[in-house]
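I am still getting used to C-alpha cells and would like to learn alongside you. Would you supply a protein for us yourself, any chain you care to pick? Start from the sequence, derive the C-alpha cells from it, and show both lines together. Go ahead whenever you are ready, and we will take it from there.
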Amino acid sequence: MRYLQRTLISLLILTALSFSALAAKTESAVPHEINLAQEQAKWAQQQHESELLLIKQRSTFLQLESLLKSAVKNNNVSDNTELYLNLIESLKDYPLQMDATTTYIDARIKSVSKDTPSEEVKALKHEIEQVIAQNPTHFLRNRWEQGIFTLLMNADDTEGLVHYAQRVKPSSLEMQIAVLNAELQLERTKNETDKKQNSNSDSNIISRYEQLWLTNSNLPNDAQLWAKWYSDGKRTQDKIYQKAEELFAQNDANGMALLSSELNKIDSAKEDEMVLANLKRFESLLKNPATLPELADRLPLIEENNKIVTKFAVVQTFPRYLRTLSETMKEPNFAPYQQWAKNWQLTDAQIREWEIAFLGRFFDNESPNFQQWRDAEILKLKADNLTERRLRMAIWQKTDLTPWLNALSIEGQQKQEWRYWQAKTIAKRDSKKTKEILTALSDERGFYPMLAAAKLDPKTRGNGYDFGQPELLIAPSISDPYWADEFKKVKPALEEIAELRQFERFGPAKQRWRFLLENLSGDSKKEKQMALSQYANQQNWFDLGVDGSIIAKAFDYIQLRLPIAYSDYYDIALKSRPALSKTKPQAALNTNVSKSFAMAISRQESAWNPQAQSSANARGLMQLLPSTAKATADNAKLPYAGEADLFKPLNNILLGTAHLAELNAKYPNNRILIASAYNAGAHRVEKWLARANGKLEMDEFVASIPFYETRGYVQNVLTYDFYYQILQEKEDPQTFSNEEFDRLY
C-alpha cells in the first residue's frame, strides 16, 4: 500500500509538472518544453536517495541506542557527549529523532548522582526544559517532565525537587514519595532554624502521605514519612482497618501481610494485640476462604464505638467461601448463613447480595427442594443475572418462559435477546404482535436482529437482512485538499508510528496512536478520529484501525470496525487442503471454510492485533494455544517452529484456518458448533449437545450455551461473518446455513 501511495503521488507530481510546462508555454512567447523522461528519472533518483537515507538513519538510530545502553552500563555517558549529539544531528528529519534525543536524555539522567556538580545538573535540566518548550504537544512530553524528577532525585537536590513539584505533578509512587521526603526534610530544617516544633506545612505533608498509604499496599523509601506519621499518632485503628478493607477488596494477601508487619519499621514499638490478631485473620481468609466458618460462627467483637471492625471480612469472604463448596452438595440450605447475617448485623442489601451469590453457586443443583426454593427466590429477588440464567434453563428445558420474562427489569426486557424471545413466546396467541416485535428488531444491528429477519423470512433465512452502513468519510491524504491542513498537523506523528511498527515496536506505536487520536483538537473530533482509523487500515495497521474506531465510538461504521485484513493470506490459507487424516480420506470433503468465517473468527479473537496474547497464552491473530498449533501443524503437515511463529500473521492464519478445517470436518458447515468448539473446546460442545439431546432449535441451542463468553462469541462471529460477506461483496450472502438453521441440536 505504501508503494501504491508513492506511485500515486509521483503521478500527481508529474502531472503537475506537465501542466506547469504547458502554462509556461502559453504565457510566454519564448518556447519552453519539459522533458518528461528526464523529470521522471530525476524524481526516481530523488526517491532512491531518500530511501537510502532512511535506511542509513534507521541503522544509525539502532546503533545510537546500543551505544547509549553500553555507556550507561559502563558509567561513561558524559565522556562521549559530542559523539551522541553528532549522531542525533545526523538523524535530522528522521521520524524517530525525538526518540533518539529522549534515549540520550535518559542516559544522561542515569549517569547523574549526588556527586555530580550542581552546574552540570542545572545545565541538563535546562536542556530538557528546552526540548519540552520546543515540542510542547509531543507524545514524549510527559516522559521528559518526569525525567526531570529522576534527575533531581539522582542529584539529591532536595530544594530543586520541591520547587519543580510545584509546577509539575509527579506520576510514579517513587517520585511522589521522594517529593514528600524532600518537603519533610526542608520543613524540618526550617523548623530547626525557626526553633519550631511543628507547622501547618508539616501536617499537610503527613496528610498527603496518609492518602498514599491508605491506597497502596507498599510504598518505596517511605521510612521517614511513616515514622513521622506514626509518631504523630496518625496510624489509628480506624485507619488500619480502613486500609485492611481496601486490601481485602483487592484480594491482596501480600499487602495484608505487609500491613501487619509495618511495626518493624519502629524499634520497640508495640501494636494492640487484637488489631494484629485481626490482621493475621484477614490474611488467612484471603489465602483460604474455606476457613470463614471459624470466624463467622463466633459472635463478633463490638468495639467501643459500637462498630464491628471485622464485618467487611465476613461480608466480602462469603462469595469466595461459596466457591469452596461443591455445587452438587446435598440439599443446599441458606438458613445457616441467615444466622451469620443476623450475628454480624448485615444490612438488607448485604443479605440480598449473599442470597444472590448463594443461588448463583448452586443454581444447577438437582435437589427438588432447592429448585423449588430457588425459583421462588428468583421471582422475589428480581435480579436480572439470576432471571436470565433461569430463562436459559427454561429454554433448553422447553418450558414456559413467560414468568421469567415478566420478572426481568424494564431495562432487561429491552435487550435484543429477550425481545426476540418475547416475540417467539407469544407467537401462537398473538401473531400480529410477534411480527411487530420481530420487524422492529430486524431494523437493528446484531445477532438477534439477524435472527429476527430469518424468522420473518424463513425461506431465505433472512438473507436480505440489511444492517445499514453510513457513508464512510474520506481518509486523510496528501493529495486530498479537504484533509490537507489536518494531515499536515498529524503527519509527523503518523510517521513516528510507521517507523515504530517498522521496528516491530507495536506497543509504543499503539500508545502513540491513542495519544494522537485522544488529543486531536478543533471541531469534528470524531470525524477526524474516524478518518485516521480509515487511514490506518489503508496502511495495513488493522489493529490500530479497529482501536481507532472504538476510540471514536464509530459503532455504526462496519467498514472501520471490520477491515478486510490480510486478505491475500486467507486466500492462500483456504485453498484446497489434503485429507486431514490418512485413515479418513472422506474428511477432506468437509474441510472447506469460508474466508468471511475465518476473518470473523480472527476479528473476534484479536481485533486484528497480531501480537495479542491472552492470559491462557493463546497467541496471535487467531489466538491459538501453542499446544493446539503444534497438534494442528502435525496433522495438516504445516511448518511450525515454535510459539514465536504464532505472532507472525501468515503462520498464524495457516494454522488457525487449518484448525477451523479440522472442526469443520467434525461439524460440517455448522459455524455455531465450530465457533463454540474453537472457543470452549469440542469436548464441551459434545457435552452441550448431549444435554440438548436433539430437541433444541438453533436459537434455543445458542441461547442455552452455559458459558457467557462462548455464547457471546458465537453470536458475534456469525454476525461478523455476514458483515464480511457484504463487505467482500459476496454474491448471495448467507445469514445461516441449512445445516445450522434447519437441524435440531
